[in-house]
Amino acid sequence: MSFQQGLSGLDAASSALDVIGNNVANASTVGFKSATADFSDVFAASLGIVGASQVGIGVGVSAIEQQFTQGNLTTTNNAMDLAINGGGFFRMSSNGSVSYTRNGQFHVDKEGYIINDKKLRLTGYPAGVNGQISPSNPIELQLSASQIAPRATSDPLSGELRAVVNLDSRDVPPELTPFDFANPGTYNFSTAVTVFDTLGVAHNLTTYYVLNPPATPPSGGQWTVWATLDGANPQQLPGGNLIFDTSGALTAATATHTLPTWNLSSGAATPWSPGTINFTGTTQYGSESSVDRLTQGGYTSGSLVGIGVGSDGVVQGRYSNGQTRNMGQVVLATFADPNGLLNLGNNEWALTSLSGPELVGAPATGSRGVLQSAAVEDSNVDLTKQLVDMITAQRNYQANAQTIKTQDQVMQTLVNLR
Description:
Layout: H1 2-25, E1 35-42, E2 58-66, E3 73-75, E4 82-85, E5 89-94, E6 97-101, E7 107-108, E8 114-115, E9 121-125, E10 139-140, E11 161-166, E12 189-196, E13 202-211, E14 221-229, E15 235-236, E16 242-244, E17 256-258, E18 276-278, E19 290-295, E20 304-309, E21 314-319, E22 324-330, E23 332-334, E24 342-345, E25 348-350, E26 359-361, E27 370-373, E28 375-377, H2 383-416
Parallel strand pairs: 11-18
Antiparallel strand pairs: 1-2, 3-28, 4-27, 5-6, 5-9, 5-23, 7-8, 9-10, 9-22, 11-19, 12-13, 13-14, 14-15, 14-16, 17-18, 20-21, 21-22, 23-26, 24-25
């Protein structure tokens, strides 16, 4: 029986060396998870023998368990390289067949799909026309290289045109009248902002501020506002003057004004139809006239110039017009028992009944980790530990070989008895 025990010990030590060798071989494999060999003793099934009288008949390999511990993160120069810091797996698709991986070495193919070196496509949540992410069934993420459409200043998504300025309370009304935007002597202050029409064409909206003579009875001050588009056709803003109280604050009733309408030769709609300009926050203090804020939400068309991925998995495109837009969101899958996954090689795992169903969600939700762009997760193999385990397995192999040798000597002694 010692021969059988020794042989099982040799087989177990050999399996341990196989596992260790595989770990060492993959010490530089991105996303690799090391494994350990689990052993159990073997007893013969028999009747009428109490436990204290049983002698084991060797050892067996009960399981090869992978260690899903976190690997170190290493930065790269590729923004599409993704590392998971925490739990979860990337969900990959190949013609509808789903697999899972921790290897985040991705790039974009000619069709715009995010793929790995094996041409498997990364899956995630799609983005709507305006970049909104709607969690649904994950799909293969495909990035569009199309230009981003322009947004007119009048678009409801652009918000309102806002101007926050300080008008110098020490100014006096201009001596020259009437107003002429070409003559600075007819106004006290001016400022300009770029606005966009429905074709994405930029226009220069300039506003001019003229201090009116003191009212009767005297008030804090009244200013008439004129505007020109591209330096032509000056018009006074409808809605009256900007009126300030004696503390230099703008009265709420005069804060919002309708913008004039100009005809555009391009055939596009005006940058507003109609639109307003909000002066809330404008002041009349005893300091130089200045602009504190001048904002609008329109923009021209733009070409895709770069792609980035946030820690929440949102893939965002950067465009030449300074805008960004969501293009999708990477999802991560978790499992009740990751060790129940089937190892397919190539840093891939497949779902089995032992692992439990996939639980898909966005990064940083539940037990899922966060993503780091321009980084990869290194193998979690500890070479020092593997080398020590290799020595131990070698000693176990030698010891089991010695039991076989000893048993052979005992058998030889019995054979030589006369």
